[in-house]
Amino acid sequence: MIAKTILLAAALCAGEAAVAVEFSGALTDKLPGWTFKASKNRDGLVYNEFEGYYPDKGGKLSSAPIRIGVRPSGTFYKIKFEARAPERSYWGVDYYDAQGKLLPDYYGVIQAGPRAGHEFIIYAMGIVDSIRVFFQSNRGIEAWNLSVEPATPEEAALWCDRLYATLPPLVCNPPADSFALLPRTKEALHSGKEWRVVMLGDSIIQDTFHSIYEALLKRAFPKSNLDFISSVRGSTGCWFYRRPENFKAYVADQKPDLLIIGGISNYHTGEKAANTAAILEVAERAKKLLACEVLILTPALSFDTRGADVAPRKWTLEGDERTKKQVDPERLYPGAAKLGIPVWDMTTPCYTWLYASGKPYEFYSRDLVHSGERGKQIIGRVLFSYFLTARN
């Protein structure tokens, strides 16, 4: 059947966009506006602005642009399609602002298998004007019947619940005083005050952003009016963001009320002491110059550090040499305490879950570094657990 595009609804009212678009039948570059880009370096490394240098994921089929319109704040969208994949493949969303500038993307995973239906929820920042849904594979993924439509925060939270229910249980018991140094953010969660949450870091912070924890927060704090901003660069840490021009572009220009600093790339280069100093410098500068609250996250779920043996067992930082290279608790915690800035431990609950799960890395990931939808739920639930302490 020749695919056809059906515009179900597109309206701009009261400054917000409502759009529902369907592409029926087989999805190919023969459709108007659809494009296909061949693999850049099959079996080699390629650069993605928001992921960094990672193995090429193959040829990329992108949809025609779908305009959702710039909005006052972020919005959830439900994406449905059918797909058949000969190997573990990928889908995702490229976001663009009104000037056509590419914004931080979304990457998901499609497991190998016969033709099946898929449903996902994404979050689009208010600055997003249009999106392109894409499919990517080295051996050719087939897809049919793509639809994109608005979703409510309630629908998004329920989607998270359904996915989370399929995972081994997560244990996360954050300190009850986690919000002691974030009083204005805590007040905003309860009062409904407009509050910009800027998430600064690398592709792991991008995975955190796309865990849809935003919907869980809205359900837990129904009066809240938080606007979430992803400000990321692949494989990049505060050794980059500390430079004045980069601090301006990635932090100051985003106008945070709460700045969240995280990811796994803060210790990619140089000495640990210098890298920790860079994290604290960015945090202190934001707090002083921008008068915002600041939160530092330790690295969340990324590399599978278990080796070949995935049998359930206990995790300790002392026994995990790779993760130890990405943290510096001896300097970071006391340094942040002197600045009055909290540090939330994402590492321990994420890796405790992984080591106890008994699941291979393919279960939760999309590649050797990044999480698929399952892994993102673990990251998001850990962060959400910390936010829940603001109920106290």
Characterise the protein shown here.
The longest helix is centred in the last third of the chain and has 18 residues, at 272-289. The protein is α+β, with helices and mostly antiparallel strands. The protein is globular, with a radius of gyration of 20 Å. It starts with a strand and ends with a helix. It has twelve helices and 18 strands. Strands 3, 6, 7, 9, 10 and 12 form a six-stranded antiparallel sheet that branches. It has a five-stranded antiparallel sheet with strand order 1-2-13-8-11. β4 and β5 form a beta hairpin. Mean pLDDT is 94; it is low at 1-17.
Concise account of the structure shown:
With 392 residues, the chain is an alpha+beta fold. The protein has helices at residues 153-164, 183-191, 203-209, 213-220, 238-241, 244-250, 272-289, 321-324, 329-339, 347-357, 361-364, 373-388, and strands spanning 4-13, 16-26, 35-37, 45-48, 52-55, 59-62, 66-67, 75-85, 89-96, 102-110, 113-124, 130-137, 142-151, 194-201, 225-232, 258-261, 293-297, 343-344.
Keywords:
five-stranded antiparallel β-sheet; six-stranded antiparallel β-sheet; alpha+beta; globular; disordered N terminus; 392 residues
Return residue spans where pLDDT drops below 50 for at least 5 consecutive residues: 1-17
The percentage helix is 25-40%
Q: What is the overall pLDDT average?
A: 94
Q: Got a strand count?
A: 18
